């Protein structure tokens, strides 16, 4: 009643505030803010990222405190540079921990975490570490190497491309830096560890006594379902002034897949004639190759004239004393490029396998490939033939595939 502006100023101010608030909340701007906050707080990764960040902060703090106590009495210059809480905090650090979980309802099926690590020992060393946790659901059928039964969990910890220059290993002037890949894994079922394993691989060009080590690695598994050791090496060795590319691989033990054998020899499926799904025994592979241009002292002619020759040999003993098979394969290959428009490939392989039943398999294969014109506009083709003979007490059976 009366004049609102003079009789009831407080009610007027409250009415104006309500009108302003209603107009603001009804506009587009606060609606977008509300949607953004809901998406952020409702994201599955939000709570998990917060949890993992807190967890790794606690782990880093514990490691720093423990190392500070352990190296307090160190005398050498490397440990002296790490003494003190302040110095240690700058010597051991982790950053950019990111997670990528996969959910099935309320169940966490797997999670992958990446962490950018930095160590100062005392030079800076930066590398990427990762952790994988997977739930392997094998209630009724086996999954990979995991037997049927209750769901299992597979945990993997590793780091990729860890630089090794800090360790005093020298690389060639034009070579890439030396790096190391390392991985450890274990599998759990019914609360017990089914198996453990890991791998270590060093890449790059490490020079010593005129030789260059390009790749060396090993992988290992111990447990209920697999027990094996596999390794491989690749290097360049000068022989009479000619650089020769050499390589080798070794597998020993039992593996429920051929993946560990492929680690030692990528061409293992061409060596094992019976196409097994698993392997038990010993497998050895070695070989080498060189440039025919270097042998003829033609120098670096590029694609005008380039010829490469190589030979690869593999032997294996599969199975036990009563069901064992001894076999092997040797392959020779030549690659030639002429005038940058002509190229060809020729390889010849011979193989054999002898099992305890007295059956002997021998044979050979040949492949010829050619290309004319500059690629990708070149015209190319390949022809191959394989002849295999199986010798038994009933005679000889021949097979030809071309």
Description:
By secondary structure, this protein is of the alpha+beta class. It contains 9 helices and 16 strands. It has helices spanning 4-7, 9-25, 28-42, 44-70, 77-80, 85-91, 259-264, 268-271, 292-295, and strands at 92-104, 107-120, 124-136, 152-163, 179-189, 192-208, 211-223, 227-239, 242-255, 279-291, 305-318, 325-338, 342-355, 360-372, 379-392, 395-401. A 16-stranded antiparallel β-sheet has the order 1-2-3-4-5-6-7-8-9-10-11-12-13-14-15-16. The protein is elongated and about 120 Å long. The N and C termini lie far apart (107 Å). Mean pLDDT is 75; it is low at 82-89 and 166-175.
Annotate the secondary structure layout.
Blueprint: H1 4-7, H2 9-25, H3 28-42, H4 44-70, H5 77-80, H6 85-91, E1 92-104, E2 107-120, E3 124-136, E4 152-163, E5 179-189, E6 192-208, E7 211-223, E8 227-239, E9 242-255, H7 259-264, H8 268-271, E10 279-291, H9 292-295, E11 305-318, E12 325-338, E13 342-355, E14 360-372, E15 379-392, E16 395-401
Antiparallel strand pairs: 1-2, 2-3, 3-4, 4-5, 5-6, 6-7, 7-8, 8-9, 9-10, 10-11, 11-12, 12-13, 13-14, 14-15, 15-16
């Amino acid at each position: 009643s009366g004049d609102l502006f003079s009789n009831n100023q407080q009610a007027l101010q409250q009415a104006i505030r309500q009108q302003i608030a209603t107009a603001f909340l009804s506009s587009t701007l606060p609606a977008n803010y509300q949607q953004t906050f809901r998406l952020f707080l409702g994201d599955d990764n939000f709570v998990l990222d917060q949890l993992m960040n807190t967890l790794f902060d606690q782990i880093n703090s514990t490691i720093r405190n423990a190392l500070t106590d352990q190296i307090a009495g160190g005398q050498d210059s490397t440990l002296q540079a790490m003494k003190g809480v302040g110095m240690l905090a700058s010597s051991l650090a982790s950053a950019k921990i990111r997670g990528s979980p996969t959910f099935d309802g309320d169940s966490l099926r797997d999670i992958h975490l990446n962490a950018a690590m930095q160590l100062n020992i005392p030079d800076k060393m930066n590398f990427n570490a990762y952790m994988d946790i997977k739930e392997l659901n094998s209630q009724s059928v086996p999954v990979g190497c995991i037997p049927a039964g209750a769901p299992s969990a597979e945990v993997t910890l590793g780091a990729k491309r860890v630089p090794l220059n800090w360790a005093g290993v020298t690389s060639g002037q034009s070579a890439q830096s030396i790096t190391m890949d390392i991985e450890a894994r274990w599998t759990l079922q019914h609360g017990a560890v089914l198996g453990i394993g890991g791998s270590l691989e060093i890449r790059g060009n490490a020079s010593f006594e005129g030789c260059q080590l390009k790749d060396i690695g090993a992988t290992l598994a111990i447990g209920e379902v697999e027990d094996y050791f596999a390794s491989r090496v690749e290097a360049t060795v000068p022989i009479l002034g000619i650089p020769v590319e050499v390589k080798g691989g070794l597998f020993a033990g039992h593996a429920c897949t051929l993946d560990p054998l492929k680690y030692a020899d990528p061409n293992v499926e061409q060596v094992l004639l019976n196409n097994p799904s698993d392997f038990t025994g010993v497998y050895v592979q070695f070989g080498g190759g060189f440039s025919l241009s270097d042998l003829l002292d033609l120098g670096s002619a590029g694609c005008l004239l380039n010829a490469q020759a190589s030979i690869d040999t593999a032997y294996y003993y599969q199975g036990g004393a009563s069901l064992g098979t001894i076999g092997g394969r040797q392959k020779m290959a030549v690659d030639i490029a002429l005038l940058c428009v002509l190229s060809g490939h020729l390889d010849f392989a011979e193989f054999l396998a002898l099992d305890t039943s007295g059956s002997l398999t021998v044979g050979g294969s040949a492949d010829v490939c050619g290309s004319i014109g500059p690629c990708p506009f070149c015209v190319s083709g390949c022809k191959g033939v394989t002849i295999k003979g199986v010798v038994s007490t009933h005679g000889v059976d021949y097979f030809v595939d071309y």
